[in-house]
Amino acid sequence: MNLLPKPAGRILFFLLLFLGADVTLLAQDSLKVDSMILSNRSGLENVLQGSVAGLRIKSWSGTPGAQATLNFRGLSLNPTDHSTMPLILINGVPVLASPSNVTGINPLGYYSPEQIDRIEIIKDIDQLAAFGVQAPNGALNIIMKEGQTGSIHVRGSAFAGVNFLQNMDYRKDAFYNFNTLARREVYGNGGFINEESVMVDGAGDYGSYLFGLSNHQDQGIIKNTGFGTQSLFLNAKYNITNRFSAHFYNNMSLANRNGRYAGEFNRMLPLPVISDEGFFMDKNRNVGFVSSMGLTYQFGSGFKAGSVAGISYEGASRDVYTPSNVLDGNIYASSAAYKRQLITVNTTISYLHDFSDALHLDMTLGNEIRSTDDRLTSVNGERNMENGGSDFVKVVTGYNANQTNAMSDHEKEKLVSFYGIWKWKYKKDLDINVVLRTDGSSLYENKWALYPALGIHYDLKNGLNIPVKVNASIGKTGVLSRPEVYGGALDAYGEYYGGNYLGVGLLYPAFAGAKSVGVTQMDFGLTFAIHSSLNLSVDYFNKTYRNFTYQRYLPNISGIDYEYEAGGAIGLAGVEVSLDARWIQTTRFSWTSNLNFASYRNKVKSLPDEIENTSLAYLGALSKGDAVTSLVANKSQQPVIIGNSDPKAFGGFTNTLRYGNVSAAFTLTYAWGADILAESFSSRYYADRTDNVFPLKNAETPYYLTSEDATGRTVYQGIRTIEDGSFLRLSKAVVSYHLNSIAKKLGQLSDLEVFVRGDNLLTLSRYSGINPEENITGSRMHDLSYTGTPLPSSVALGLKLVF
Amino acid sequence: MKLWNYIPIAAIMLFFSCSKGALTIEPENRTIPGDYYNSFQEIQQAVIGGYVDLRRALLANYAWTMYGEVRAGDLQAVVSFQDMVAGQHLTGDNRYLAQVTDWGYFYDVIKDANDLLEIVARADDEALNPYRRNLFKGEALALKSIAYFYLARIWGSVPSAEKNNFGKSLTNEEAVTQSALFAAEAKSLLPWLLLNDDGIESVALTAVRFNKTAITMLLAQEQLWLGKGQEAYDLLTGTFTADTADSLSGFGVSNGIDRRIEIPQSPLSGSVLRMPLERLDAIYPQGDARRTSMFNISAGTNVATLIIKDASLLELLPKREINLLLAEAAWKAGFLEEAKTYLITAAIGATEDYSALSEDAFGEALLQERQRILVGTGQRFFDLIRFDKVSSYIPEFTQADVDKGAAWWPLSAGSMKSNGLGQNSFWSNP
Questions:
Q1: Taking the model in full, what pTM does it have?
Q2: pLDDT of amino acid A686
Q3: A592 in a domain, yes or no?
Q4: How many domains does chain A have?
C-alpha cells in the first residue's frame, strides 16, 4: 500500500476499523448502459469515459469516427502501441477492436449503444487469466440486449445536433502555424450530427429475439469532411429443447469517412489562405461484421457443454487523390485495402458439484482456437503535370509501372489454448478461484506457455459482521510479442548481371528464444459499504512485464545488422478508488453519484545491458526506478528527464438527479499531473550547421531532441515549453423528460422521452494548445504527428420511444 | 447418435489443432532461411547476395576509387568529399567519407560467404550437381578471400570474422595469409568458364563471377603482397599456359539495382572519373598510345575523362593484369629477363624501351606501368603500399607517418563500436 498517499491511507484505516453495519456489496464489475450517459460521438469508449476507475480513455482526436485511446492497467515500451488496449468481447466472443491502420475508423463505432445491455469490467488476474495472452491489459465484455418477454416491442430513438469549437483563440493556434485565415478556411462551427436507431424484440418459451438498425452521421468541425456508419444487428436465442439452446448474434456495419488535405494531414498551411481543395479526395470505407453462434447443452447431472464460434471481419479501404494545385504541379493518388479477420472457437465443459450444503465446486474445462489473418495491399503513384495528368483524374490507373509502387503484406497467426477454471465456494463467505491456461502460439518456436492464477474472495459480513469484502489474487499472463522472429528472415539485396539474378542474404538469424512478454499480476481489493447507500471500493494492483523482444545491433564485423533478443522488465502499480452513493432515493427525487479515481506509477525494473546498441536505445537515459513514460531530452549534450507523460491521477465524477419525470446527469473527467513536451515550431537545426551545439532560442527551454533525417544528418529539435497537462472537463451532460402523460394517451406507446445532451462542454486547463489530451505520446511534435485535430463540443436534441 | 459418440471426433480434432504443425504458419510475406535454399537457383541467390554485398562495399560513395586512385591523387571523382580524400584528410567531418571509412560491407561479404559454405555443405546432390557444388563453394571462398584482402590492404590490421577466432585481431600478414589460403582452395574448385542456366559456357557470365583466371590473379596478388615471389611465379606460370590461353577471363562486379538506394546503380556512367591534364601528361607522356585509347581529352578543358568501355561492369581483376603479375613474380623470383619480356608485352603503346631495364629500375617501371594500365580498378594506392612507396608519392606523408600507420585508412566510429578496437597511432593524432 505504499502507493497510497498517507492521508488517504489513514482515512482508509479509519473506515476499516469503525464503519460497518448495514452492508450491501456493489462491486462495480458491470455497467448498465441504459443508466449511463450516452455520447453524441460514435464509439462505445465515449460512453465508458469517466465511469470506470482505472479505465483511461483519452479523447485525443476531434476527427469523427476516430477511436479515443483506451488503456486499462496497460503499459508497454511504446506509447503508441495498441497492445495496451483491453480485450474487447461481445457476448464473450473476442472481436477486432483496434482501428485499422488504413482508414483509422473505430471498430467500436460499429455498435449502437442502444443495442447494448451492459458492459462487464474484467481486471483482476483470476478472471483475466482465463483469456490468456489475449487479455494482458484487462477486458471489457459487451453484453448485448436480448428480447424482452412479450410478442413484440418496438423501440426507437433519434437525436440531432451540431458540433462547435470552443477555445479557438489565436494564441492557442499553434496547430495552424498561427495562421488565423487558414484556420477559418478549415474549421467551422455547425457541423451536423445525428443518429437514429430502431429495435424490435420479443421473447417467449421459444427463446428471444432482437433485431434492429441504426444510422449515425457526424460532420465534425472540419469543413467538407464527415463520418457515417450504418449497422444491422440481430441477437436471438432459440431453445431447441429444454436442455439444448442456440444463441446467434450478428452485427453488420458500413462506415465511411471523408478527409481533407489541409487541417488533417498538413497543418503548415500556406499564407494567406490554403490552396483550393476542390479536387482533393480522401475516402475511407470500412465494412465490419461480427457473427457468433453458441450452442449450449445442459446434462442432467450437473454437466453442461457449450461451444461458441465467432467471426469478426473488417475490410477497410482508402482512396486518396491529391491534385496538382496542392502539390505544386505533381498529382498523387493511392489506394489501399486492409482486410482483417479473427475467427474464434471456444468449447467448454462445465461441472457443478455440491460437496455439501456449504461447499460447492464449479469447474470448467475449455479449449479455445483463435486464428487471425490480416492482408494489406496498396498501390500509389505520382506524376508531374508536365508529363501529363490532370486535376480531374482521380484514379491511380493510367500511371505506368515506373511511377507506381505496389505493396502487399500478409500476417497470419494462430493461437490454440486449453484452460481450466475451478471455482470453490464455501457458504456465502469464501470464493476461491483457480485458473490454469496454456496458450500455444504460431509466433514462437517453443509454442506453449503456461499461465496460472489464484484468487481468494472473502466476505467478512457473515462471520465477523464487518461490512467488508476482501479479495486478493495473483497470477501470470502474457502479451503476444511481435513480429514472428523465431525463423529468422532473408532479405533481397539487389539485382546482378543484367537484372537476371537476384541476390539474397540474411536479414537476421533465427531467434529460438522468441516468446511472449510475461506479465505477473497481483491484485488486492477491499469493498465496503459505509452505509446502505454509500459504497466504497479500493483496489490495488501490481504488474510486472518481462522479456520484451528487441533488436540487438551487432558489431559491424558480424556481417548482419542485428539479431533479436528478449529481456527487460517494467512495472506498473496503482490504486483505484470508486465511491458509489445514493444520496437520496425517494419515489419523487433521487440523486446518485459515482466518483472514481486512479493513481498509477510505472517504472523501469531492468533494461538490457549496453542498451545503446539495441532498438530500445531511446530508453537509454532511464535507470532502474525511473518512469517508463518519462519525457527525455538533451541539455548540453547530456540526456535528462524533463517530465512524465502519464498523469499522477485520473478519473471521473458522475451525478444523476431525477425529480419526477425530469432527470439530469453529468460526467466530469479529469487528469492531473501529466507533463506535455511541446516541441518548437521554429528552433530546428542541422547539427553540422551549428557546430554540434544546440543554439538556444529566446523564450524557449534549453532542452532539445536529436534525430536523423532521411539522409542521415543529425537534426536538433528545440523544445518550446514543458507544460502541465492537467485538466477538468465537463465531458457529458444530459437533461431528459419522460412524457408519461402523452405516452398514456397514445395507448400503444409505453414510454416517450425527450432529451438534450452535450459533449465536451467545458475544459479547464492551462495547456497552451486546444485539447490537453490531444497528444498520444505526451509530446506535441513539430510536425504534429500523433497529435489529434481539435476536439469539438456538441449539443443534440433527442427522442426515445417504446411501443 | 448419442452425444458420447462425438467425443472421439472431438478428441481427434483437438489433438490435431494443438500439434506443432498446426501451430506453424508459413509466412507469405517473408522468407525464412531454414526452409530456403532447396534448389540450385535458390542457392545461387545466396552466391549472388555475396557479390551484391561486394558491390556495395566497393560502389557506395565510389569507395573502390577512393581507396585507390583518388587517394593516390591520380583520378578525381566528382563528389563532395573528393578533396578530403585526395588531401589525406580521412578523418574529416563528412558523412559520405565516414561511410567509406567503415568496413561493414566487406564483413557482410564474409558473412554471406560463410553462410554460403554452410548452405552448400547442407545441400543434397539433387539440388547441386558436382559442377555447381564446386562452383558455389569456390565462389564463397573467393569472395571471402577478396574481402579479407581488401580489408587488409585498406586498414592494415583487421579482426577475423571466422567462427573459430571471431573478433581476433589479425596482423596484416595474418589477414593476407588467411586470404591466400581461401584463394588457394577456391582455385582448385573454380572453372575457367562458367555455364549459364542452359548449361552453355558463357563469357559474359564468367566476367562477373569468380573464375579460375580471376582467383589465380587474386592469389598471386596476395602472395606478392606477402613477398612470396617464387610461389607467385610458380602459380602463374603453372596456371596460365598456352593450353589455357583461350579460356582466360577477367573479373568485375556487375552493376545493377540495389535494395539500398544509396548504392549507385551505374557508377561508371557519365564522366565521374577524370584526371587533370597535367597529371595525365605526367603519367602518360605525349606519344603514349594509351592516352587517347583510355581517356577523352576535351579541347579547352584541363581535364581528361576516363573512357569506360563497359559501364555495366566494374573491373577488379582485368585480364590485362596477368602479364603485369607475371612480370612482378618473375622479377621477385629472380628472373629479370623473363620479367622484362612480360612487362614489354603488357605495356604495348608505351614510349619507354624496357628491354634495357636494370634490376634496380625494374620496380619503378613496373609500378608506373601498373599505374597506367590498371587505372580505374582501384589498385594504385595498394601498389604504393606494396612497393613501399607511399611517402615518395604522397607528399602529405613522411616515412615516419607511414611507419605510424598513415598508409592505412582510419577506423570509422562504427567499426570501433563494440569491436574493442582503437584508432591506429597515426590517425588518432594525425
A1: 0.89
A2: 92
A3: yes
A4: 1
